[in-house]
Design goal:
Structural class: alpha/beta
Number of domains: 2
Strand content: 15-25%
CATH topology of the largest domain: Rossmann fold
Radius of gyration: 20 Å
CATH architecture of the largest domain: 3-Layer(aba) Sandwich
Strand order of the largest sheet: 4-1-5-6-7-8-11-12
Order of helices and strands: EEEHEHEHEHEEEEEEEHEHEHEHH
Number of helices: 9
Largest sheet: 8 strands, mixed
Number of strands: 16
Distance between the termini: 34 Å
Helix content: 25-40%
Shape: globular
Length: 327
């Protein structure tokens, strides 16, 4: 039997609802109670739980993410532990998954899972998701694939997945690259390895007393005001991510504000609000002249995380752009 540690952070999988109610409160039960609700999970691995936090994932913070990253690295340094499972709310799951994908320093499996229905719901999806996540974390074939997310019988890579539905259990998809594999009642089948840098080859990490710079996201819309970008710069943002129309576009007024931001030393990344596709350089915007960065196929929230980590040291625009092509 292989040793797997389950780290609880809260979320819907630890949520409680009143009988017959659609509403619920996330992060109400502890990780041991979540584990004990999964029949047969003890046959997959020797498991133990640790509570890192117990919050609804809309309240997930970088402080919790950094604590989680440090604890995972500590645990995986032990030869007795073969893998980690993290239980997490779905709202910010892709952000935490990508942050860990950049800061974990091990080939061993790290698997994030959660639920779309609270623990007390009819047909709660959390128990089977956790069962499958433990099976993947204990599987030697999962090693070297970066941080994985197991939900609804699918195995997704942290770089590619995104939440696509507000309530459906089939919410997580990897629209550009597809899933890494499937897992059916603990039996996993893998299709591919992630093609970007991650985990044990990543140059990023979490240090003690580390602070991350402020990076803001702006969602493009028709007739968007440019003063929002100016305000972000005035408030001390080191970076700005544009969730642009189509191929990362914004109107001419906001484009002017983005140029003003760059002139004041703020890094501007053009991403897209569209759920699939990549943002290319110099298509409708002269990125070379304006010194903008394009996100390639990273969505806005993941672009923000990569930029925050990248800005912890001095880099040229060219070096920053290379990171978006590499991670």
């Amino acid at each position: 039997m292989r040793n797997v540690v389950i780290l609880g952070t809260g979320g819907t999988i630890a949520g409680v609802a009143a009988p017959g109610s659609f509403g619920y409160t996330a992060g109400r039960i502890d990780i041991d109670e979540v584990i004990n609700a999964v029949p047969g999970i003890e046959t997959l691995a020797h498991i133990r739980g640790e509570q890192v936090s117990n919050v609804a994932s809309q309240d997930m913070s970088f402080a919790i993410m950094m604590e989680l990253s440090r604890r995972i690295n500590e645990l995986l340094a032990s030869k007795d532990i073969v893998g980690i499972v993290v239980t997490h709310g779905t709202d910010t799951m892709e952000e935490t998954a990508y942050f860990l994908n950049l800061t974990i320093k091990s080939k061993k499996p790290v698997v994030i899972t959660g639920a779309m229905r609270p623990a007390t719901a009819i047909s709660a999806d959390g128990p089977l998701n956790l069962y499958n996540a433990v099976a993947v974390a204990a599987d030697p074939e999962a090693a070297g694939r970066g941080v994985l997310v197991v939900m609804n019988d699918r195995i997704h890579g942290a770089h590619s997945l995104t939440k696509t539905n507000t309530t459906s259990v089939e919410t997580f998809l990897s629209p550009i690259n597809g899933p890494v594999g499937t897992v059916i009642y603990g039996l996993a089948n893998y299709f591919r390895y992630p093609f970007r840098k991650h985990t044990f080859v990543s140059e990023f990490g979490v240090k003690e007393s580390m602070s991350l710079p402020r990076v803001d996201i702006f969602h493009a819309c028709a007739d968007m005001s440019d003063d929002l970008i100016d305000c972000s710069v005035e408030k001390g943002a080191r970076g700005i991510v544009i969730a642009g129309h189509g191929n990362g576009n914004i109107n001419r007024y906001c484009l002017g504000a983005a140029r003003r931001a760059v002139a004041r030393g703020v890094v501007v990344v053009r991403s897209s609000s569209v759920s699939s596709g990549s943002v290319g350089r110099n298509i409708e915007v002269d990125d070379d002249s304006d010194h903008f960065i394009v996100a390639d196929d990273l969505n806005p929230v993941k672009s923000r995380i990569l930029l925050m980590l990248a800005l912890t040291r001095e880099r040229t625009i060219s070096e920053l752009q290379d990171l978006f092509y590499s991670y």
